[in-house]
Design a protein that fits this description.
single chain, alpha+beta, Ribosomal Protein S5, domain 2, 7-stranded mixed sheet, 5-stranded mixed sheet, 6 helices, 20 strands, binds zinc ion
Length: about 300
């Protein structure tokens, strides 16, 4: 039986937000069983400053997943940190931040995985609860399609198709139940296109973006001097984003996810569709000994 996990020690990191460009300090803290993952904006004290990491708190999904609580307090770009929590099997933690956005660090989940590892995962007494998918749920938007279907364990398939030759068509399928996140997905960095940077900056976005925290594509070239870590780093990052977005279910998923050109908006609509129909899912206790064991 797999038990819930928190961390033994708190751990902090500092960095800039990808969109805000603001310097932020983030601290992972232990939390009691059943607490889940919760953000706490320590720079705000005049109203409720806790924001649950839950799909129903997602407020906007433009170039990142952003959460807002009932008091109107927000935290932006949560997906790479939450992917690390899900991928490492961290169930319960209070995540303190002293600004409006999670730091982007190197654009991947690896620094967050290393933080969780250094904070030392510890088991709690209650069993984990899994969101078991009982019937298919699908969201389609033009050429984009995402779905969850019933299945053993947690398998994720992602396909992307970009016109630049650097990316082209990429396809990946990963069985997430054996520490695969840390080995195969966590390192993959976010990416963007140089021709979009000016427009995005004028909209107040990617102010903290640089070649140190994103792969930047110009036409058919990668501008980063060290290039790619693997040719399929792009589809691996899309899968990383999916893991982060699905972490907002509030517990690990038992089922299969398939995404054709997935994005944060569709992933959130998918979870909302699951929660809107009680016949699509049930919460069950985790009977799999090895689920998401850290490597
Ligand atoms: Zn991402």
């Amino acid at each position: 039986m797999a038990r819930q996990r928190t961390i033994e020690h708190e751990k902090s990191v500092e960095g800039v937000g990808l969109h805000s460009g603001e310097r932020v300090r983030l601290t992972l803290k232990p939390a009691g069983e059943g607490a889940g993952l919760r953000f706490r904006r320590v720079d705000i004290s005049d109203r409720d400053n806790e924001i649950p990491a839950h799909a129903l708190c997602v407020s906007t999904t433009q170039l990142g997943t952003n959460l807002t609580n009932a008091a109107g307090v927000s935290i932006a770009t949560v997906e790479h940190l939450l992917a690390a929590c899900a991928g490492m099997g961290l169930d319960n933690s209070v995540i303190e931040v002293d600004g409006p956005e999670v730091p982007i660090l190197n654009g991947s989940s690896l620094p967050f995985c290393q933080m969780i590892d250094a904070a030392k995962l510890v088991e709690q007494s209650s069993l984990r609860r899994l969101l078991k998918i009982l019937k298919p749920v699908e969201i389609v938007d033009g050429p984009k399609r995402v779905r969850l279907i019933p299945g053993e364990g947690f398998k994720v398939q992602v396909k992307i198709d970009f016109s630049t030759r650097v990316i082209g068509k990429q396809d990946i399928e990963v069985d997430m139940t054996d520490g695969a996140f840390l080995r195969e997905i966590a390192y993959a960095r976010t990416f963007g296109f140089s021709h979009e940077v000016e427009k995005l900056r004028s909209m107040g976005l990617v102010r903290g973006g640089s070649l140190d925290n994103a792969i930047v594509i110009d036409g058919d070239d990668v501008l980063n001097p060290d290039g790619l870590q693997t040719p399929d780093e792009f589809v691996r990052h899309k899968l990383l984003d999916v893991i982060g977005d699905l972490c907002l279910a509030g517990g690990p998923i038992e089922g299969r996810y398939e995404g054709d050109q997935p994005g944060h908006a569709l992933n959130n609509r998918l979870l909302r569709a699951v929660f809107a129909d009680p016949e699509t899912h049930e919460w069950v206790e985790d009977e799999d000994e090895a689920l998401s064991a850290p490597a």
